[in-house]
Amino acid sequence: MISVVVVSHDTRDQLRQSLRHLAAVEEEWDELIVVDCASQDGTLEMLAEEFPRARVLALDQNVGFGRANNRGVELAQGDQLLLLNSDAWPEPGTLRALSKSLDEDEGTALVAPRLRYPDGRLQFSWAPATGLWGELLQKIRNRFEDRPRAHQRPPLYLRPVFDQDWFTAACVLLRRRAFDEVGGFDEAFFLYFEDVDLCYRLRLRGWKLTEVPQARAVHVKGGSGSPATIDLEYRRSQLLYYARHRPRWEFLLLRAHLRRRFRRHPDPHQRRHLLALLD
Q: Concatenated DSSP letters for 210-273?
């Protein structure tokens, strides 16, 4: 049984588009749970009017992506969980392919499709292990997103230093048992790095994560939030991840790098908030 969990916060129009596509493949999933984080854009009214099949959990505040997903999973009945961004949707046949892959290997916890932008361009859905070296490799790789070969798994001789270590939670199918075993998302991550952290903890428990190349999903890659808020939350979560999972020398080096960078920020208000993250 596949339970779809979608988290929304002031993304009514994107959510509508996503759920319409999801409804077109409704024979591939069993239940739909939408967790709304105190949207003020008419999301709840839209859901009640247009998607009566959805089970809606309306929260009274924006609790963050990871915590909202955890609340949705608590309501889910399925043994397989499709975590789906409100600006993403699976293409026909994708959920069948992902579910089949999970069924065929009991040691696999997470399967991910290939992602595309709405115009058909390939989008990165995976990244190497997060750390100073991994993030450097990721920045270099990101320049070649328009090249199909950059989306393939690296050859064997490169995998010790550059491999599919984690997958974005924009669209992934998870084994419920594995998700519960690691305690779901770490709710200390409000936004960003919660999927990196989840993949890291799954691997620590011996679970496998893999991509299913024949499965496809579209990800608009938009969302809510101002650039300043996004930057602040990204850096907050980045520092938290390094503090928890990386060697101390990497954490200290990251702090030193960010301090130099934040001090050069042109907006004094944003500069003050960014530097406060390092206190």
A: EEEEEEEEEE----SS-HHHHHHHHHHHHHHHHHHHS-HHHHHHHHHHHHHHHHT-S-HHHHHH
Phi and psi at 228, nearest 5°, equal -65, -45
Domains of the chain: 2-219 (3.90.550.10), 227-276 (no CATH)
> Does residue 224 have a pLDDT over 70?
no
pTM above 0.85, yes or no: yes
Question: pLDDT class for 159, splitting at 50, 70, 90?
Answer: confident
Q: Encoding tokens for residue 257?
A: 């790098």
Reply yes or no on whether the pLDDT at 225 is more than 70.
Answer: no
Sole residue written with tokens 């929260």: 59
Residue 49, SS3?
helix
What count of Cα atoms within 13 Å lies in the side-chain half-sphere of residue 179?
Answer: 26
Helices marked H in the chain: 12-23, 43-50, 65-75, 94-104, 132-142, 176-181, 194-204, 227-245, 248-263, 268-276
Q: Which helix (H) or strand (E) holds 115?
A: strand 108-116
pLDDT digits (tens, 9 = 90+) for 7-63: 999 999 999 999 999 999 999 999 999 999 999 999 999 999 999 999 999 999 999
69, 81 Cβ separation under 8 angstroms: no
Instruction: Tell me how far the alpha carbon of residue 91 is from its chain's centroid.
Output: 18
The two three-digit tokens of residue 219, written as one number: 């990800």
DSSP state of 84: E
